[in-house]
């Protein structure tokens, strides 16, 4: 019994480390772009609307390509599909460093596609490898995402200054992705754990007929919309309030760094009860408070705003991912709900950065933009009150999907 437990424990520790390393790569490609937007615009001559499209494109690709992840995993295996996604991420990062503007957009499209596939696979892999503690391990994975996002936001300007090129700053994140790819290919779990196979059934059509699946998806979409608005436009909005380019980037980076705390802590908080609504209301309230302080209050309130926004966004994203595993009975359903929630959710989320780009194109005031962001928070709270209830998608003995 002891000899069986040791390899199993080693497998779980190794999987956890690999999951963290992969997670570190799923945000820098997005967050490193925002602090550099003014340089990119000055160098390329792109309009605010085109810059808005550049920030929207990867998020839209997250949504479009996320549903492909279960299909690819079924044919090539989830481990090989994740390796393919990391290779695609490296290619996209390299293309963004080439001079042609069309390759900047093309590389960004590949980056979004790769992150969409990889991000969809990981919750299902977590549910497979650690079914009893999948919600807590999702918190660890989310913490890695937040750390990667913070590094991307905080280091993009220093890297651009060091290399005297915003293009090389973007390309440099390919090194971290290459390390993750080599580690995953060398050490990935090559055979499933010795667990009973999940029952067949639960097609995507059946899933679309379940209100709970839609509620989780719309919560994912609305809170992700706020996250990608922050990734795409917060430095620009802060610069319009008088902050320097470097300080605006560091403020966003600090906010993403604070997300580490709530990304890891929120699943623990959610475990105090079977109902996740109180935890969701708490973190979304922090998002609203942080946005208002940063965009409306005086500059002496910037650090409380950074902390509140970071705690709220780290917690809301972690809880949204946690709901995917808490609201499903097995890894098969978790993979399908992950594809739906992240596919549909990120497609919806892509409208957020684009909308802000349109508002800036028409020189809408910062007050009006703040109001739009707070309205999105209100919509997210509405879906949180529905998705946060103690309900679960399961299969009956005939393989038919139902909510219990």
From TrEMBL:
Keyword Protein biosynthesis set for record: no
Family matches, as InterPro entries: MFS, MFS_Cyanate_Porter, MFS_dom, MFS_trans_sf
Keyword DNA repair: no
Sequence intervals crossing the membrane: 49-69, 81-98, 104-126, 138-160, 166-187, 212-236, 248-270, 279-297, 303-326, 338-362, 368-388
Record-linked Pfam families: MFS_1
Species this protein is from: Billgrantia sulfidoxydans
The Major facilitator superfamily (MFS) profile domain, residue ranges: 11-392
Descriptive protein name: MFS transporter
Keywords of this entry: Membrane, Transmembrane, Transmembrane helix
Higher taxonomy: Bacteria, Pseudomonadati, Pseudomonadota, Gammaproteobacteria, Oceanospirillales
């Amino acid at each position: 019994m002891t000899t069986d437990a040791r390899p199993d424990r080693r497998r779980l520790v190794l999987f956890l480390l690999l999951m963290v390393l992969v997670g570190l790569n799923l945000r820098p490609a997005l967050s490193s772009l925002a602090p550099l937007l003014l340089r990119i615009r000055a160098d390329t001559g792109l309009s605010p609307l085109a810059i808005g499209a550049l920030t929207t494109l990867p998020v839209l690709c997250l949504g479009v390509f996320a549903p492909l992840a279960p299909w690819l995993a079924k044919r090539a295996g989830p481990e090989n599909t994740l390796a393919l996604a990391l290779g695609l991420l490296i290619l996209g990062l390299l293309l963004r460093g080439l001079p042609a503007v069309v390759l900047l957009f093309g590389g960004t499209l590949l980056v979004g596609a790769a992150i969409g596939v990889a991000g969809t696979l990981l919750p299902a892999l977590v549910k497979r490898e650690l079914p009893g503690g999948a919600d807590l391990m999702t918190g660890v994975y989310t913490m890695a995402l937040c750390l990667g996002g913070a590094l991307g936001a905080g280091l993009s300007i220093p890297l651009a200054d060091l290399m005297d090129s915003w293009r090389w700053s973007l390309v440099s994140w390919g090194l971290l992705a290459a390390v993750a790819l080599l580690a995953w290919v060398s050490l990935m779990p090559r055979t499933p754990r010795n667990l009973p196979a999940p029952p067949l059934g639960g097609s995507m059509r059946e899933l679309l007929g379940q209100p709970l699946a839609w509620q989780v998806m719309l919560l994912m979409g609305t809170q992700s919309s706020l996250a990608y608005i922050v990734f795409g436009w917060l430095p620009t909005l802060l610069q319009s309030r008088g902050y320097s380019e470097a300080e605006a980037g560091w403020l966003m980076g600090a906010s993403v760094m604070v997300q580490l705390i709530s990304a890891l802590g929120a699943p623990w908080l959610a475990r105090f009860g079977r109902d996740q609504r109180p935890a969701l209301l708490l973190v979304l309230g922090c998002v609203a408070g942080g946005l208002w302080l940063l965009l409306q209050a005086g500059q002496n309130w910037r650090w409380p705003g950074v902390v509140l926004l970071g705690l709220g966004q780290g917690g809301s994203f972690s809880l949204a991912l946690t709901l995917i595993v808490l609201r499903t009975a097995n890894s098969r359903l978790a993979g399908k709900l992950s594809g739906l929630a992240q596919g549909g959710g990120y497609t919806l989320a892509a409208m957020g950065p684009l909308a802000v780009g349109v508002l800036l194109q028409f020189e809408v005031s910062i007050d009006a933009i703040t109001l739009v962001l707070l309205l999105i928070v209100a919509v997210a709270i509405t879906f949180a009150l529905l998705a946060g209830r103690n309900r679960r998608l399961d299969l009956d003995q005939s393989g038919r999907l139902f909510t219990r």
